[in-house]
Specification:
Elements lengths: L19 H33 L4 H29 L5 H35 L2 H6 L2 H18 L1 H5 L1 E5 L5 E5 L9 H41 L2 H34 L10 H26 L1 H5 L3 H4 L4 E2 L2 E2 L26
Antiparallel strand pairs: 1-2, 3-4
Pfam family, one: 7tm_1
Protein name: Somatostatin receptor 1
Family: Belongs to the G-protein coupled receptor 1 family.
């Protein structure tokens, strides 16, 4: 049975009947991630919309990243049921919709993480171009462009989605290139996986590495120039955490697929389902981990944690925080930390 999560169309048929337990475990894990991720990302969306605002590009991109993860997680429950039962019970429309949102989330997440890296570099550079870029209107326009590009990038996934019956006359939901004609299924599999690898991992990774290389140089200058350098570092740590976790979660998945698709002999390897599904679980984790990064690093996000969850806890990370106090103020928040100087009105 091929997995469908996060554009995870496994390019090989599973030849081992005794691997069903792997899919059951993955499906059960998906339910857990779905619940935690939906609650956490919805909390981030509410905090940004109702508390911190969207006056900076960083907040705008974080909001869109949370929306992309929520869109994927909303369909993860269907995919989890499919992984456990190996039968798609939800009809052709939801089959194609689930696969399309898979691909959309994969690209949108990568592109918004890249946008965050670029925004951090441009923010620290303090150039007039950076201040223009970080205005809300420009950030909203960039977000729309990213969504459009993500939709276009996901079209091959939609074209290769099929709702068909298997040998047991059960309906399954898969991505296959068997109807694409010449030069054959193996070629189209390799082309599709390579396309995903380059667009979803290589390009974002190269751009992010370049931005962070330049950012290291800029940060040294900013931190010595004024006290705002400390605030810049706090926001930069948040973005850095999101970027690093994204690539750590997605790199194994992309690499496993590239190795499998260019080594067809591995389709007979009994460990293939386990390795593939394990790399898949890391991508699921990425869809719900970002809110915890915000809460760990940003005081302002911690201040907006539900009071019930922190009732009676007066200290977090060694510092006193009035989480449930309406009059509490924080020196660091993701809204104010996105500016470099007190005179920056972006």
């Amino acid at each position: 049975m091929a997995s469908v999560g996060n554009s995870t169309q496994e390019p090989f048929a599973d030849l081992y009947g005794d691997s069903d337990w792997i899919y059951s475990v993955t499906g059960s894990f998906s339910y857990i991630v779905c619940v935690i991720g939906l609650l956490a990302n919805t909390w981030v969306i509410c905090v940004l919309l109702c508390k911190l605002g969207l006056k900076t590009a960083g907040n705008m991109y974080i909001l869109n990243l949370a929306i992309a993860d929520d869109l994927f997680l909303a369909g993860l429950a269907l995919q989890a049921a499919y992984q456990i039962t190996e039968v798609w019970h939800f009809g052709e429309f939801l089959c194609r919709a689930a696969l399309a949102f898979d691909g959309l989330n994969m690209y949108a997440s990568a592109f918004f993480v890249t946008a965050l890296s670029i925004e951090r570099y441009m923010a620290v550079s303090r150039s007039s171009r950076a201040r223009l870029h970080r205005k809300r209107r420009q950030a909203a326009a960039v977000s729309v462009i990213i969504w459009v590009i993500s939709i276009l990038a996901a079209i091959p996934t939609l074209l290769a989605s099929y709702y068909i019956t298997n040998t047991r006359e059960d309906y399954i939901c898969i991505t296959t290139f068997s109807n694409f004609g010449e030069p054959g299924v193996e070629f189209w599999n390799q082309a599709f996986i390579t396309y995903n690898f380059v667009l979803g991992l290589c390009v974002p990774l190269l751009v992010s590495c370049f931005c962070y290389g330049m950012l290291i140089v800029q940060m040294r200058q900013v931190s010595m120039r004024n006290d705002a350098g400390a605030d810049v570092k706090r926001v930069t740590r948040i973005v850095t955490g999101v970027v690093v976790v994204f690539f750590l979660c997605w790199a194994p998945f992309y690499l496993v697929r590239m190795i499998l698709v260019y080594n067809p002999s591995l389709m007979y390897w009994s460990g293939k389902p386990f390795v593939f599904e394990l790399s898949l679980c890391f991508t699921y984790i990425n869809s719900c981990v970002n809110p915890f990064i915000y809460a760990l690093i940003s005081e302002k996000f911690r201040e907006n944690l539900p009071c019930l969850a922190l009732r009676g806890r007066g200290y977090i990370s060694g510092k006193r925080t009035a989480v449930c106090d309406r009059n509490s103020t924080a020196l660091t928040d993701i809204h104010r930390n996105s500016v470099i100087t007190n005179n920056d009105s972006s």
